[in-house]
Fold this protein.
Amino acid sequence: MPTSIVAIANQKGGVGKTTTAVNLSACLALRGKRVLLVDLDAQANATSGLGLEKTEGGSVYRPLLGEGTITERIRTTSIERLSLVPSEFDLCGAEIELARTEDYLNGLKRALTPVKDSGEFDLIIIDCAPSLGILTLNAFAVADHLIVPLQCEYFALEGIAMVTRILQQVREGGLNPNLQLLGVVMTMFDGRTKLANNVVAEVRTHFGERMFETLIPRTTRLAEAPSHGQPIITYDPYSAGAAAYEVLAGEVAARLGL
């Protein structure tokens, strides 16, 4: 079965995007899938969340510009079958340098295609920056599927129209006509509040079956795990957060036919 590429993106920060990228990757790896997580955010939170250090020259920065390969930047993690292409602060400059190149929206596609074609991984997950800049559009250009984390708060509803519009533009503008919305995942859910339940109901009305059934809870343990350089599934495997991401991994695997 060909390798699938999934971008996890939301232009708004603080919605649990990197938390979802790290924990979904770890849970899928523990289900026996060979997963490569690409940290495309200069903040490098996915890198530190898996206990790895940012290293100069270790990110996709140079391969984006046609210098070197992504393959030589792949690193193993403490989770069996989960590999990582780390980020670094210099990735901030990639937006500017890429903008000066021809066909600047397909740099990541050119760099990732050999990894995809190698068949070494079942799934490549890209953790995008919280913006709709050049790097995120590069991720959209190469991805087969998009997962959008939405926080269970009022402002999440404002993001719905933006997600739909960008997806439509990417398809109709010819950047990636085949990009599909794999699903919307609701994060930081607190079932005790009326607002959270109302937001979930509203998003479900809008996206229907494209919204994942799994609701990711707002928990202290989930927030603590990155500071220990571990995904929740190893930091506290019996927590509500770990259970939620395990179930989400099952939903994602089913939708991808893994």
Q: What stands out?
A: The chain has one domain: 4-252. The chain is about 40% helix and 15% strand. Strands lie at 4-8, 35-39, 75-76, 82-85, 123-127, 145-151, 180-189, 211-217.
